[in-house]
Design goal:
six-stranded parallel beta sheet; alpha/beta
C-alpha cells in the first residue's frame, strides 16, 4: 500500500477488550457467574483473567472444566450479552482513533470475540466510523497468540507486517504481533493483565496520548 508522509505506521490494528473498550469487569463477572451456576464453585479472578484475550471462549472454558464446556459457554453468553449495553471506550481512545483516521491511516480491530459480540460492542461504542477492517473469531481457524488473525487483517487492507502496528493489552497480543512480524504496542489501562504480561512488546504506554506518540 502507499505510504503516508510523516507517518510511521500507515496501518494500526487494535485488540478490543482491555484496549479500546473497558470490558474487563463484565468479562470477569460473566465467567464467575458461569462457574457458580454450572459448577457450583468459585474460580479465582486471577485464573480467569490470565486467559482473557487469547484463545476462543470454548478453550477458556475447557481450562475450567473440560467436561462441561458447552454449558459454561451458554451460561456465560446469556449473562454477558446484555452487559454490552454498559460498555464504554477508555478515556481518550475515540480521540486517538479520530486523529489516526484523519491522518489517512487504515485502522482495524482484531479480536478473539465472536462477530455477534463484536457487533454488540460496536453498537454501543462508536468505533466503527474509524475502522477499515474487523477480524472476529470466525474469520480465521487459528486465534491469538497465533498470528493468523493479524495476517488476515493485513491481507484485507493490502499491507505488509512492516507497515503495521498492533495495539493490545495481553501477552497473547504480544506473541501474535511478534509472530506476525509487526510492531507491538502494549497498553496498561485495561486492568485485565498486569504490565509484566506485556514483556516483549516494542513499546508500552500508559495513556492514549502516549500511544499516538509511538505510532
Amino acid at each position: 500500500m502507499a505510504t503516508i508522509a510523516g507517518v510511521r505506521f500507515p496501518v494500526v490494528l487494535f485488540d478490543l477488550d482491555g484496549t479500546l473498550v473497558d470490558s474487563g469487569a463484565i468479562i470477569l463477572a460473566s465467567f464467575q457467574h458461569a462457574a457458580r451456576t454450572v459448577l457450583d464453585r468459585d474460580v479465582p479472578a486471577s485464573e480467569i483473567l490470565a486467559r482473557v484475550g487469547g484463545t476462543s471462549l470454548q478453550e477458556q472454558m475447557r481450562a475450567i472444566d473440560p467436561d462441561r464446556v458447552d454449558e459454561l459457554v451458554s451460561v456465560y453468553r446469556e449473562h454477558n450479552l446484555p452487559l454490552a449495553e454498559t460498555l464504554e471506550a477508555f478515556e481518550g481512545i475515540l480521540e486517538v482513533l479520530e486523529q489516526l483516521h484523519d491522518e489517512g491511516r487504515r485502522l482495524g480491530v482484531v479480536t478473539a470475540k465472536r462477530r455477534e459480540s463484536l457487533d454488540l460492542a460496536l453498537a454501543r461504542v462508536p468505533l466503527e466510523p474509524y475502522l477499515d477492517v474487523l477480524i472476529a473469531s470466525e474469520d480465521t481457524a487459528r486465534h491469538k497468540p497465533d498470528p493468523d488473525p493479524l495476517l488476515e487483517a493485513l491481507r484485507r487492507v493490502d499491507a505488509t507486517p512492516a507497515e503495521a502496528a498492533y495495539v493490545g493489552d495481553s501477552p497473547f497480543d504480544v506473541r501474535a504481533a511478534k509472530a506476525a512480524g509487526m510492531f507491538m504496542v502494549g497498553v496498561t489501562w485495561g486492568r485485565i493483565h498486569g504490565r509484566e504480561a506485556l514483556d516483549g512488546a516494542d513499546a508500552v504506554v500508559e495513556t492514549a496520548e502516549e500511544l499516538v506518540g509511538v505510532l
